[in-house]
């Protein structure tokens, strides 16, 4: 029998995660909690069963949870949910779409609650933190380090040995060249090419 899993947040990112879980066949999805959605409504056939206040009760029968709130430029909600789930005692698995490519040596080096979407390529020597999102068709090359709560948006390319600090967001289709170190809490806009290191908290949203 498969383990049950509860999903936290029922928006766009949730749909992508539901599909990956269904196709991987690894968990039975127990339901979704979302404060803004109507109880008993459905997201891709999965029922919204209430708000986050029911999670301690759910934990009596479901031991796995996954944060299906994505993020645009701000990880505070995901961090708050992560801390709540940990406090209750939920286990957060790594969810990878079966059509992602993950190097064999990396599998043990991916933090809890991280999502790897369809078409993403994760090459050898990489370390990924907790609750990171490596989104659709992102390509992460050898020996990169990706921090906690990082969002690598669809179509991003990280060349080899790139470092990405905790809570940094890299926008759709951005390119980061070899050996660049990006600090914590940085924002890189869609389509930007980053050739130089970025310090903590910096934004790079215009190609110049
Ligand atoms: O770019 C891509 C491919 N994906 C984006 C993803 C990474 O981030 C996507 O396009 C969106 O921009 C964003 O997806 P997300 O987070 O699913 O956004 P949205 O569709 O706005 O749905 C967020 C859901 O989370 C809403 O239904 C909120 O009510 C819910 N939510 C917010 N805070 C929460 C909480 N749910 C729970 N259970 N607890 C919360 O604290």
What attributes does this structure have?
208 residues, alpha/beta, Rossmann fold, UDP N-Acetylglucosamine Acyltransferase, domain 1, 7-stranded parallel β-sheet, 6-stranded parallel β-sheet, 22 strands, 14% helix, globular, binds GDP-N-acetylperosamine
Structure description:
With 208 residues, the chain is an alpha/beta fold. It has 2 domains: 3-93, Rossmann fold (3-Layer(aba) Sandwich), CATH 3.40.50.20; 96-204, 3 Solenoid (UDP N-Acetylglucosamine Acyltransferase, domain 1). 14% of the residues lie in helices and 28% in strands. It has 3 helices and 22 strands. The N and C termini lie far apart (55 Å). The relative contact order is 0.11. The model has no long low-confidence stretch (mean pLDDT 97). The site of GDP-N-acetylperosamine has 25 residues, from helix 1 and helix 3.
The termini sit apart by 55 Å
Second rung of CATH, namely the architecture of the largest domain: 3 Solenoid
Largest sheet: 7 strands, parallel
Structural class: alpha/beta
What is the overall shape? globular
The CATH homology group name of the largest domain: Hexapeptide repeat proteins
**E-strand count:** 22
CATH class of the largest domain: Mainly Beta
Query: Which fold does the CATH topology of the largest domain refer to?
Result: UDP N-Acetylglucosamine Acyltransferase, domain 1
- Domain unit count: 2
Strand order in the largest sheet = 6-8-11-14-17-20-22
Rounded to an integer, what's the Rg over CA atoms? 17 Å
């Amino acid at each position: 029998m498969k383990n049950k899993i509860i999903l936290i947040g029922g928006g766009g990112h949730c749909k992508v995660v539901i599909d990956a879980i269904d196709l991987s066949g690894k968990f039975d999805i127990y339901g979704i909690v979302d404060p803004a959605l109507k109880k008993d409504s459905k997201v891709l056939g999965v029922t919204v069963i209430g708000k986050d206040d029911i999670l301690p009760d759910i934990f009596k029968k479901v031991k796995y949870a996954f944060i299906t709130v994505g993020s645009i430029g701000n990880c505070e909600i995901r961090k708050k949910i992560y801390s709540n789930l940990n406090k209750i005692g939920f286990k957060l698995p790594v969810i990878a779409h079966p059509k992602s490519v993950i190097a064999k040596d990396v599998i043990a080096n991916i933090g809890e609650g991280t999502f790897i979407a369809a078409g993403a390529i994760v090459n050898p020597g990489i370390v990924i933190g907790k609750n990171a999102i490596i989104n659709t068709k992102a390509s992460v090359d050898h020996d990169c380090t990706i921090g906690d709560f990082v969002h690598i948006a669809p179509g991003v390319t990280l060349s080899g040995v790139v470092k990405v600090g905790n809570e940094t967001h890299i926008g759709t289709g951005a390119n980061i060249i070899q050996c660049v170190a990006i600090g914590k809490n940085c924002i890189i806009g869609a389509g930007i090419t980053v050739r130089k290191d970025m310090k903590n908290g910096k934004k790079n949203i215009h190609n110049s």
